[in-house]
Amino acid sequence: MQGLIPYLAVALFYAGLGVYFWRRTWHVGSHGGTAVHQAAAHWMRGLAILPPLAGHGLLLHSSIFSPFGLDFGLGNTVSALAWLTVATYWLVNLRYRMEAMLAMALPIAAVSVLLPALFPSTHLLSHASLPLFKLHLAISLLAYSLLAIAALHALLMSLVERRLHEKTLLATFVGLPPLLTMERLLFQIITVGFVLLTLTLASGILFSEELFGKPLQFNHKTIFGIVSWAAFAGLLIGRHVYGWRGRTAIRWTLAGFALLLLGYLGSKFVLEIVLSRP
Q1: pLDDT tens-digit profile of 165-205?
Q2: Which of 7-11, 21-25, 87-91, 165-169 has the lowest mean pLDDT?
Q3: Residue 132 CB: number of other CB atoms within 10 A?
Q4: How many helices (H) and strands (E) in the chain?
Q5: Nearest alpha-carbon partner for 261 in 118, 114, 85, 116
Q6: Which stretches does DSSP call E strand in 36-103?
Q7: Contact, 21 vs 165, CB < 8 A?
Q8: What is the DSSP letter of 276?
Q9: What is the dihedral of CA 194, 197, 201, 204, to 10 degrees?
Q10: Would you say 24 and 99 are in contact if contact means Cβ atoms under 8 Å apart?
Q11: Domain segments of the chain: what residues?
């Protein structure tokens, strides 16, 4: 139980902030005050995220970097992706008023931070000392976290669009950038995420060639990764050629991320949780 306490503390901190940001997002009301007061309050809310974010990072470090090697089981992987997502939102929120995104990300992080403690694994990476593998791992985590951010961003756009049609836009939503700006930001995130996903697949091919003598292993993870890559490629081509936007862009974004999630985390869930294999 003692080992669970730090995880619970960080999870409760995340959850408390999530409730706070959620109430600001969904409860109609005036967030008044002078521009200086609002800016100061915005920075204070940003600073409040740093303690759980730092605590989460320390827990991840101790959980992933074990004395026997790198441990990237399902719990550590989901927790790392949640940490990267919150950290990225925190940085973006310094420039844009994206607190509604934090209202969506913080509850997910509150659950994710507990997973390494609740579902400990011994999924040690056997090739963690190879520089090419370290590069592949870092790029893949960044790609998945950025595309997760794109999916949450698409969900937020869908909510804002629906509120606009219902003429019930909340005060916090009014503080968000215009929908067109949010859409441009969505495609910027997707473009960077797509480039990193391409590098993930390419470095995976090189890594497979170096270790196994063949460029691709056609397993569950690889097939879903390629199909997800094709979905995001189709979305970017559709945007450039046909001007896809709005609900079409949102649907393609969510579909592409769902495929990526099934490929990467689905296989880990089946192996580690269902079949109890490392």
Answers
A1: 666 555 555 556 677 888 888 999 999 999 999 998 888 87
A2: 165-169
A3: 15
A4: 11, 2
A5: 85
A6: 65-66, 69-70
A7: no
A8: -
A9: 160
A10: yes
A11: 1-119, 126-278
